[in-house]
Amino acid sequence: MKDFIHFNAYSIDEAVALLSRYGGNAEIIAGGTDLLGKMKDRILPSYPEALINIKTIPGLDQIEEKEGMISIGALVTLSCVAEHPVIQKTCTALAQAASRTASPHLRNMGTLAGNICQDIRCWYYRAPQNRFSCLRKGGGRCYAIKGDNRYHSIFGGSVKGGCFAVHPSDTAPALIALNARIITSKQSISADTFFNVGVTHTTVLANDEIITAIQIPAPAPDTRSTFQKFALRKSIDFPIVNCAVAVTEKNGSIAHARLCLNAVSVVPRRAVKTEEVLTGNKIDETVAEEAAMAAVADAKPMEGNAYMIPVTRAIVKRTILACRENHGG
Ligand SMILES: Cc1cc2nc3c(=O)[nH]c(=O)nc-3n(C[C@H](O)[C@H](O)[C@H](O)COP(=O)(O)OP(=O)(O)OC[C@H]3O[C@@H](n4cnc5c(N)ncnc54)[C@H](O)[C@@H]3O)c2cc1C
Ligand code: SF4
Question: Is the pTM of this model over 0.90?
Answer without folding.
Answer: yes
